[in-house]
Design goal:
- The complex is a heterodimer of chains A (106) and B (120).
- Chain A is an all-beta fold.
- Helices cover 0% and strands 48% of the residues of chain A.
- Chain A is globular and about 35 Å long.
- With 120 residues, chain B is an all-beta fold.
- Helix content of chain B is 0%, strand content 47%.
- The relative contact order of chain B is 0.32.
- The chains are: A mainly beta (106), B mainly beta (120).
- Chains A and B meet through β5 and β10 of A and loops of B.
Chain lengths: 106, 120
C-alpha cells in the first residue's frame, strides 16, 4: 500500500494568515492526489483534486500543487470557517490511502 | 443536486452484524462507483472498498475481506454495506462516497456518515 505522510499534524494560525500543509507519498503517484476538508462532526468534503484542480464552489484562497511524491495545500488569507482538519488522499492505486490529517487551529 | 443520504446511527453487540444504507439522488446511480470509508473516533480515514452499482462488482480492502459485503438495489438507487462479526474496535463513523471510476479519481460527494457503536 502507498503510505501518505502529512505534516504538520497540527497547526496554529490566525485569521488572515497563509498556511501550507504538505503531503508526501511513499512512491510516485503522478498527480493522483486529492485534498479534503473535514469540520467537526461532519463528513469530509473535496477541496482540490488531481493535485491542483479546485473543486467547484471552493474559494480560490485554496490551492494545491505538486506531482510525483511531494504535494502541498496552501490556504491564503485564512477565514474563520477554514479552521478544520485537512486530509490528503492518493488514488493512484488500490487501496486509496489517506494522510493522517492536519488539524488547523486558531 | 448530487447527494448521498445514509441511514441512521446503529448500536450492536460484539459478534453481530450491521447493514448501512446509502441512498443516491441527483445523478444516474449506475454510472458511478460507491466507496465506503470509516473513521474511528478521533482517528483518520480508512478505505473499506468499492462497488460498481451497474454490475454489482466489488473490491474490498484486505483488512476487511471476509467481513464486509457491499450490495445495491438499483430500483431504489441505494447502496448497502453489511459488516459482520463486529468487534468493539469497529466503533466508527462509516461514510459512503461517489467516484467516476475505481482508481485515479476523487471522492465527491460523501454521505453524512453513520455512527456504528459496538458495545456489550
Amino acid at each position: 500500500d502507498i503510505q501518505m505522510t502529512q505534516s504538520p499534524s497540527s497547526l496554529s494560525a490566525s485569521v488572515g494568515d497563509t498556511v501550507t500543509i504538505t503531503c508526501r507519498a511513499s512512491q510516485r503517484i503522478d498527480f493522483y492526489l486529492n485534498w479534503y476538508q473535514q469540520r467537526p462532526g461532519k463528513a469530509p468534503s473535496l477541496l482540490i483534486y488531481a493535485a491542483s484542480s479546485l473543486q467547484s464552489g471552493v474559494p480560490s484562497r485554496f490551492s494545491g500543487s505538486g506531482s510525483g511524491t511531494d504535494f502541498t495545500l496552501t490556504i491564503s488569507s485564512l477565514h474563520p470557517e477554514d479552521f478544520a482538519t485537512y486530509f490528503c488522499q492518493q488514488t493512484y492505486s488500490t487501496p486509496p490511502t489517506f494522510g493522517h490529517g492536519t488539524k488547523l487551529e486558531i | 443536486q448530487v447527494q448521498l443520504v445514509q441511514s441512521g446511527a446503529e448500536v450492536r453487540k460484539p459478534g453481530t452484524s450491521v447493514k448501512v444504507s446509502c441512498k443516491a439522488s441527483g445523478y444516474t446511480f449506475t454510472a458511478h462507483y460507491i466507496h465506503w470509508v470509516r473513521q474511528a473516533p478521533g482517528q483518520g480515514l480508512e478505505w473499506m472498498g468499492w462497488m460498481n452499482p451497474d454490475t454489482g462488482g466489488t473490491t474490498y480492502a484486505q483488512n476487511f475481506q471476509g467481513r464486509v459485503i457491499m450490495t445495491r438495489d438499483t430500483t431504489i438507487n441505494t447502496a448497502f454495506m453489511e459488516f459482520t462479526s463486529l468487534r468493539s474496535d469497529d466503533t466508527a463513523v462509516y461514510y459512503c462516497a461517489r467516484t467516476d471510476s475505481p482508481e485515479g479519481d476523487w471522492f465527491d460527494p460523501w454521505g453524512q456518515g453513520t455512527l456504528v457503536t459496538v458495545s456489550s
